[in-house]
UniProtKB/TrEMBL annotation:
CDD domains reported for this sequence: BRCT_Rev1 (cd17719)
Domain UmuC: 359-553
UniProt xrefs under PANTHER family: DNA REPAIR PROTEIN REV1 (PTHR45990)
Protein name: DNA repair protein REV1
Residue stretches making up the BRCT domain: 183-271
Keyword Magnesium tagged: yes
Organism: Lachancea thermotolerans (strain ATCC 56472 / CBS 6340 / NRRL Y-8284) (Yeast)
Organism domain of life: Eukaryota
General function of this protein: Deoxycytidyl transferase involved in DNA repair. Transfers a dCMP residue from dCTP to the 3'-end of a DNA primer in a template-dependent reaction. May assist in the first step in the bypass of abasic lesions by the insertion of a nucleotide opposite the lesion. Required for normal induction of mutations by physical and chemical agents. Involved in mitochondrial DNA mutagenesis.
DNA sequence: GGTGTGTGGTAGC
DNA sequence: AATCGCTACCACACACC
């Protein structure tokens, strides 16, 4: 198809060329183009004479299937901690019978035993009745008889038994949630440990670590020798005497024993040494996880705490502390995990259309604030106003508890403003590790409960659980009761497992209503709205704020206020909008889709888009793009620093891309630039202040996962956007329209290969990139050659593994760091700003194009020319003589042509282009020149240059063929381009010095 | 009508 | 010292055919 289209295109060009035109100059007599046939012969000879190794011979005898199969046997299975997937429907019945945690309708509260022991700081609100609180705190807890008043001996005995079984239950839960169901090494087997006072890590974390590693935990000291070890960070004088006969150790004993996977001698961590009152000097070693990553070079003044975007470790240290990054990363992981599980459980079907569903929307209450607060025994969640934030002034509040909210404090507010509302606000640090642990516990409880047919991850602390009601005994009351019971059970289990984190749950039969019910339930409550008449639904949602609807944010509320409600109320409710709007009005003011969506939401109904997650969860959760956004701490001085930064971003992205086994056909750069009037340094330290954003996307002819290629494209886009380096405040790179590599192998077989491939029509298996990369070095190279020979799309090798190249261009581009040094001399890397700013936008744009192209062109051309000892391609200062005379049309879409050209190059990269094709192509270019479409030619030249560069750097193409292409670009295209530029008087001059 | 690009809104704490 | 303002995805407006 490529050839036909190309031929079509070219013939169009030649037919349009009927008007008298200067014929294109014939190639110089000594051009390699003249040698097309003979050179091809030479290549063929060279190939056939190359000696084959035994290995290569063997490989060449295999058919495609066997070859790919052979490679794939080298796959290394990726290991990954996984949550247990929800029990298969078939297993449900059995589970339900055995599992004591299934709550049937109308649950009878079990006879009360001792209260479960949440930390004193956490209290349940009255919605959790005291009978609720006092029931057995874990499903497997020993059930003991009612307690008689004053029977303390019995009380403590029960309590001990209870705690023991609770620890057992927790150990299992932790294993399932955090370790893929496998046991942890029983490091603390036979140890009974008591924790005294405040410690780091805190009591809850130590408790967890001890029980998962086989130890038992004492919540109180009773009787001598009932504990084997006491953990404490420091001891009062009195305690020192009291504990002097115990093995008192620092918390590091726990953490370091775990790190070492064996119980370390406690004496090394003893807090009390033989001599009375003398404390063994503990060099407080932070836990291993807190140590700075070893690759961060400690050299010249590098400070792990300071953020410097020019340092190589910046991305990593920034991401490590960015809550938003963590949230996004967690979400992506959860989605990936879901897909994995969903595919594994192939029997899992989305609910049949029209099935009766109960949707449970489960969400921790002010998640970060609660978890962080529970890690610090000084604070009481229900009394102290608490928030999680990094700093004290202009740092953002990630989460605040309900006490703080009662002062008007909100998430996202700066701490300084929050303190004005609530002077006693306490700021707690993040505890990302514990957030993750609690999240896993939540998901484990949801999955392990067996209640739900599907558990859809929304975020780290939030999930939507789906229960099919169809099989249930009928009667709405019963369904409602069941949902109530399930909800209660889940909330209690999560509270216990997390040592005091509360979840709220909203339950209804649509996603929207479940979400609204959740909002209503918060904090620490539940709201079940199953099987309702439309009237009661309307009554229910009437009073809820419009903001609570999914997809309705500040902007949409503003629009509604302005155009529909005319600012009648400060905080409009769903009822307000419902009474004052119609479908038509909504659609006209908010857009078609948004209007329709909102209209349905106002009646509590899901729309097509938001219910897609139920109909086709796999498609809904499948990854379609991948990106990095940095809009904090961006302060650069020169374009070179930005180039390096872009390199690192692309490196990061392609690493992820590789892990996902995907390639991208398109990259988008988004630049965030300081507003002209905004101060250089905004109020927030290293913040971005007020900014404008600009974006630009570009496509690759062949989807890629090469960092170098992507990076080059992004740098080029950056220059086009023309942001002065010092004004850059944020940068984002997105890889769009991702495709699985394994899906591409089959598609990519070139049509013309079908003719000579006798196996035409038979599918051959996808080549596994991991497997390919796992091949031993020599074999890998031979396989690569073999694959290339067969035109099987071969996976690119990761840059780190690339052997030393023999291509100067490749070396040149490989040396990211050094590159700027060499280029700086010959070509200004940024255009003079003042000069540029005074030009008309179109001209600016064109010059930037030109600039970028020449930069690229020179990179591939210079090495060959320098071998000849001649000059390099150079760019004059781009002084347009008559800028006002030129009106460039906005860029045409050379996209199709660009693709054609790339595939043309791909197919002829070894043997060189055919002279006839080139002649036709010349005519096409001449036509373009005649029409004054210089920019179009520029774009084509740029495409060719960059694609040749790609081959030069990343494929084992024959240098001779590539050289012919480069010659063509230099000797015929660039002069055409120059001529065209001169003729159209565009002011763009391209000089080419030899 | 379709397709592609750039911009903007929203979600999670 | 401060401070860690991410990221996936959809929808829209507009341009071009």
């Amino acid at each position: 198809m490529d050839y036909e289209e190309l031929a079509q295109l070219l013939s169009d060009a030649s037919s349009l060329d009927a008007s008298p035109q200067e014929p294109p100059p014939p190639p110089p007599p000594d051009s390699p183009l003249r040698l097309y046939d003979s050179s091809r012969g030479a290549i063929a000879r060279e190939r056939s004479q190359r000696p084959f190794s035994q290995q290569q011979r063997l490989l060449s005898t295999l058919d495609d299937d066997s070859l790919v199969g052979l490679v794939n046997t080298f796959d290394r299975p990726t290991q990954r901690a996984r949550l247990r997937r929800p029990a298969a429907p078939a297993d449900d019945a059995a589970d339900a019978e055995d599992d004591p945690c299934i709550v049937t309708s109308s649950p009878e509260p079990p006879s009360s035993v001792v209260p479960s022991t949440p930390p004193a700081s956490s209290r349940l609100s009255e919605s959790d009745s005291s009978s609720d609180r006092s029931r057995s705190s874990s499903p497997t807890a020993a059930r003991v008889g009612p307690l008689k008043f004053g029977d303390y001996a019995q009380y403590f005995s029960d309590k001990t038994a209870h705690q023991h079984s609770r620890d057992e239950y927790m150990r299992k839960l932790y294993q399932d949630a955090l370790n893929g169901g496998r046991e942890y090494p029983p490091i603390f087997k036979d140890c009974t440990i008591y924790i005294n006072g405040r410690t780091f890590p805190d009591r809850l974390q130590l408790h967890q670590k001890i029980i998962i590693h086989g130890g038992s935990f004492k919540h109180f000291l009773s009787g001598k020798k009932s504990v084997t070890h006491i953990v404490a960070s420091n001891l009062t004088a009195k305690k020192r005497i009291e504990f002097q006969n115990y093995k008192v150790v620092a918390p590091a004993w726990i953490t370091e024993s775990i790190a070492a996977s064996k119980r370390l001698p406690w004496q090394d961590y003893a807090l009390i040494t033989g001599e009375y009152g003398q404390q063994k000097l503990q060099i407080a070693r932070p836990p291993a996880a807190a140590l700075p990553a070893p690759e961060q070079q400690p050299a010249d003044g590098f400070d792990a705490n300071s953020l410097d975007c020019k340092q190589p470790g910046f991305l990593q240290s920034f991401f490590a502390k960015s809550r938003l990054h963590q949230l996004s990363a967690w979400k992506a992981d959860l989605r990936a995990l879901f897909c994995e599980k969903y595919v594994e459980g192939a029997h899992l079907q989305p609910p049949p259309k029209g099935a009766r569903l109960a949707i449970f929307h489960v969400d921790f209450d002010c998640f970060f604030a609660t978890v962080s607060a529970l890690s610090d025994a000084r604070y009481d969640l229900s009394r102290d106003p608490l928030a999680v934030a990094h700093g004290n002034n202009s740092s953002e509040i990630a989460s605040c508890n309900y006490v703080a909210r009662s002062f008007g404090v909100k998430n996202g507010m700066w701490v300084r403003s929050a303190r004005r509302l609530c002077p006693n606000l306490i700021c707690l640090p993040y505890n990302f590790e514990q957030y993750e642990v609690n999240s896993k516990l939540l998901y484990q409880i949801l999955a392990g409960s067996g209640f739900f047919q599907m558990i859809l991850p929304i975020s780290i602390d939030e999930a939507i659980c789906v229960k099919y009601l169809d099989g249930l005994p009928d009667g709405d009351a019963s369904a409602h009761q069941q949902c109530e019971a399930i909800t209660r059970q889940i909330r209690r289990d999560v509270f216990d497992a997390t040592n005091g984190c509360t979840v709220s749950i909203g339950c209804s039969n649509s996603l929207v209503l479940a979400r609204l019910a959740l909002k209503k339930a918060k904090p620490n409550g539940q709201c079940v709205m199953a099987s309702l008449e439309q009237d009661s639904i309307d009554a229910f949602i009437e009073e809820l704020p419009l903001r609570d609807l999914p997809g309705v944010g500040a902007t949409i509320v503003d629009k509604v206020q302005q155009h529909i409600l005319f600012e009648q109320t400060a905080e409009p409710t769903i009822g307000d909008l419902k009474r004052n709007s119609s479908l038509q009005l909504l659609a006209s003011k908010l857009g078609t889709k948004t209007g329709h969506k909102l209209h349905l939401f106002l009646s509590g109904k899901d729309d097509e888009e938001n219910s897609r997650v139920l109909r086709d969860p796999l498609d809904y959760f499948a990854r379609k793009s991948i990106s990095v956004d940095i809009n904090y701490a961006i302060r650069f001085d020169t374009i070179h620093e930005i180039d390096e930064f872009i390199d690192r971003i692309c490196e990061h992205l392609t690493t992820k891309l590789g892990e996902l086994d995907m390639v991208t056909p398109q990259v988008t750069l988004k630049v965030t630039r300081r507003c002209e009037h905004a101060p250089i340094e905004p109020a927030k330290y290293l913040g971005s202040g007020e900014c404008d954003t600009f974006s630009r996307s570009s496509r690759f002819g062949v989807p890629t996962c090469e960092a170098g290629l992507i990076s080059t494209e992004v740098k080029s886009s950056f220059r086009m956007l023309g942001c002065p380096p010092k004004d850059l405040r944020g940068i984002a790179v997105q890889l769009n329209k991702l495709e699985k590599v394994s899906d591409r192998v089959c598609q990519l077989r070139l049509p013309f290969r079908e003719q000579d491939a006798s196996s035409a029509g038979s599918r051959f298996p996808a080549l596994n990139v991991n497997a390919f990369n796992s091949l031993p070095g020599a074999l890998k190279e031979d396989v690569r050659t073999e694959l290339l020979k067969r035109k099987i799309n071969l996976p690119p090798s990761p840059p780190s593994k690339r052997s030393a190249s023999n291509s100067p261009v490749k070396d040149y581009w490989g040396r990211h760091g050094k590159r700027t040094e060499t280029l700086k001399q010959e070509m200004p890397s940024t255009l003079d700003e003042d000069f540029m700013n005074h030009l008309p936008t179109q001209i600016q744009r064109e010059i930037k194009w030109d600039h970028a192209i020449v930069k690229k062109a020179s990179s591939s051309v210079r090495n060959r020319l320098s071998r000849k000892g001649t000059g390099v391609l150079n760019l004059s200062k781009n002084r347009p003589s008559k800028p006002e005379a030129v009106k460039f049309q906005s860029l045409e879409r050379p996209l199709g042509i660009s693709r054609l050209i790339k595939s043309w190059i791909d197919d002829t990269i070894d043997n060189g282009p055919h002279i006839d094709d080139l002649n036709l192509f010349d005519k096409y270019l001449t036509k373009l020149a005649a029409k004054g479409k210089t920019h179009h030619i520029l774009k084509i030249a740029r495409t060719m240059s960059s694609h040749l560069e790609y081959h030069s750097s990343f494929t084992k193409s024959n240098p001779q063929g590539r050289q012919e292409w480069e010659e063509y670009l230099l000797i015929r295209m660039i002069p055409t381009l120059t001529a065209s530029a001169a003729k159209s008087d565009s002011g763009v001059q391209v000089t080419f010095d030899l």
